[in-house]
């Protein structure tokens, strides 16, 4: 990654947003607060909707369990695949900041459309496309506030992650309560209001970002950009309608393919996009990728495979674990029944308490002789996730024997999963931001998120994939998570050498 103050496409935050870029400075850039607030409200909207989706499909629309989980997996999977396109468009034409605004507007419309049952698939499509514009660029924008090699970057991503989880904590309590108690559509509409607040938060204090997220010569986002935002929004709606129309034609063919064929096709598409990255045709970036840049891409490609295994397990939270809370957990407390969606607030609550501790821990360790390479931290996180599924498998067995289990079983699982998440996710985001070539940072962040998309699809399809195998899903998940974590620890020295090569 270039150490210059700006690139031909995107400016890094080395002006007003980052007046002190020395590695010895411990105070974070003021622009981090802006991104924190925008991401907090965007995640409020996303997790509010996610907390309700499977419950809504099963309890209100009469979906079968497997069908609801598959639709959930398809939706959450595509939510993370569209950032490939959104990151690319931001890098080449739109700019990071404007792409975030476009994505926020499209998602806001999608959340409001969820309040109308006939628009279910259109709403999901708008949420998928809008997230593609917003998510990779909000994540990349954090890295643009810091110079390459700045040790504050990992801590900055951990603080950013706290913003994610502040929104994720309140959304099941607000949207979940409105949806389960007052009416499903009230819950979905509240998610749309949250997204509107996210757009306002980004635009209101954007001067604190300096030039971060703007293309060369691009002005801060203002009223003059309204027509452009409207055109991109209308184009997003047209794309959704076109894909839904094509989907009706291709659905019978897709249904004839086996689960393994579908998985291979998805992974092949992801690999083709990753290794088919083409260099820009004009300007300084007309040069081919260097050996260091290919090393960086290889590191990101390999770690993305492990990330798929991690999130395939973690994202059971909104699917099978949500149904476990609804159907196999005793939720009665002093004559009152706790909404099933509330259990999804345990994870963000734990993150808000533990994230500052992990931020300080990584900073202290990285400055000591006990420093752990990023892949090692991620491998340990996968093992902790697996331990959570050991507990979940025990809870499943007990519930099948007794009819239900107490809520502390799920609380313990969520706590272990949270610790694993903090050891993998913010560390991984920081690694991609720091290792990725400057001219491809948005696209490669999209590739990283696309890996999470594959994992989300697998999370929803897992029960169907394991059908007839005799392997309980939670047993499979603790075996795969712990096994992959041990393998990642084993290859960490090699990945570390590749990362060092990429930084030179």
Silhouette: globular
Q: Could you state the order of secondary-structure elements as H and E?
A: HHHHHHHHHHHEEHHHHH
Q: Return the average pLDDT rounded to an integer.
A: 84
Strand order of the largest sheet: 1-2
**Category by helix and strand content:** mainly alpha
Query: Could you tell me the number of beta strands?
Result: 2
Task: Specify Rg, calculated over alpha carbons.
Answer: 22 Å
| Span of the ends, CA to CA | 9 Å
Roughly how much helix do the residues carry, as a percent range?
over 70%
Beta-strand share of residues:
under 5%
What this model shows, in words?
It is a single chain. With 504 residues, this protein is mainly alpha-helical. 73% of the residues lie in helices and 1% in strands. The chain has a two-stranded antiparallel sheet with strand order 1-2. Helix 5 (120-144) packs across helix 8, helix 10 (291-314) packs parallel to helix 15 and helix 12 (346-366) crosses helix 14. It is globular and about 60 Å long. Residues 1-24 and 277-285 have low confidence and may be disordered.
């Amino acid at each position: 990654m270039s150490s210059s103050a700006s690139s031909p496409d995107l400016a890094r935050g080395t002006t007003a947003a980052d007046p002190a870029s020395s590695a010895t400075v411990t105070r974070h850039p003021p622009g981090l607060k802006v991104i924190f607030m925008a991401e907090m409200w965007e995640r409020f909207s996303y997790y509010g909707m996610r907390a309700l989706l499977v419950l809504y499909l099963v309890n209100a629309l009469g979906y079968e369990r497997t069908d609801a989980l598959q639709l959930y997996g398809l939706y959450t999977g595509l939510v993370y695949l569209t950032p490939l396109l959104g990151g690319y468009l931001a890098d080449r034409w739109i700019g990071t900041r404007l792409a975030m605004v476009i994505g926020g507007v499209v998602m806001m419309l999608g959340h409001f459309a969820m309040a109308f049952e006939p628009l279910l698939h259109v709403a999901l499509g708008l949420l998928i496309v809008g997230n593609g514009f917003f998510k990779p660029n909000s994540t990349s924008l954090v890295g643009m506030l810091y110079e390459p090699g700045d040790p504050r970057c990992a801590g900055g991503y951990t603080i950013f992650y706290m913003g994610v989880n502040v929104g994720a904590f309140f959304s099941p309590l607000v949207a979940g309560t409105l949806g389960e108690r007052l009416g499903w559509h009230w819950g979905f509409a509240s998610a749309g209001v949250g997204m509107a607040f996210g757009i306002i938060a980004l635009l209101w204090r954007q001067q604190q970002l300096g030039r971060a997220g703007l293309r060369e010569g691009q002005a801060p986002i203002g009223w003059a950009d309204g027509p452009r935002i409207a055109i991109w929004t209308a184009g997003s709606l047209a794309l959704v309608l076109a894909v839904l129309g094509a989907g009706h034609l291709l659905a019978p063919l897709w249904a004839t393919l086996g689960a393994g064929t579908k998985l291979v096709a998805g992974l092949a598409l992801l690999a083709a996009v990753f290794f088919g990255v083409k260099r820009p045709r004009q300007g300084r970036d007309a040069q081919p990728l260097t050996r260091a840049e290919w090393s960086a891409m290889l590191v990101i490609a390999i770690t993305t495979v492990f990330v798929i295994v991690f999130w395939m397990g973690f994202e059971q939270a909104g699917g099978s674990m949500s149904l476990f809370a609804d159907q196999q957990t005793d939720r009665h407390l002093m004559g009152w029944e706790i909404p099933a969606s509330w259990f999804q607030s345990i994870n963000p609550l734990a993150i808000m308490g533990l994230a500052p501790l992990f931020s300080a821990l990584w900073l202290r360790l990285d400055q000591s002789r006990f420093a752990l390479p990023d892949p090692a931290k991620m491998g340990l996180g996968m093992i902790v996730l697996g331990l959570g599924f050991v507990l979940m498998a025990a809870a499943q067995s007990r519930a099948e024997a007794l009819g239900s289990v107490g809520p502390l079983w799920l609380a313990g699982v969520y706590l272990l999963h949270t610790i694993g998440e903090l050891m993998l996710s913010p560390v991984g985001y920081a690694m991609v931001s720091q290792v990725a070539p400057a001219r491809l940072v948005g696209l490669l962040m999209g590739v990283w998120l696309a890996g999470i998309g594959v994992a989300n699809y697998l999370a929803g399809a897992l029960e169907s994939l394991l059908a007839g195998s005799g392997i309980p899903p939670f047993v499979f998940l603790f075996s795969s998570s712990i096994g992959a974590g041990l393998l990642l620890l084993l290859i960490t020295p090699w990945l570390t050498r590749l990362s060092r090569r990429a930084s030179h």
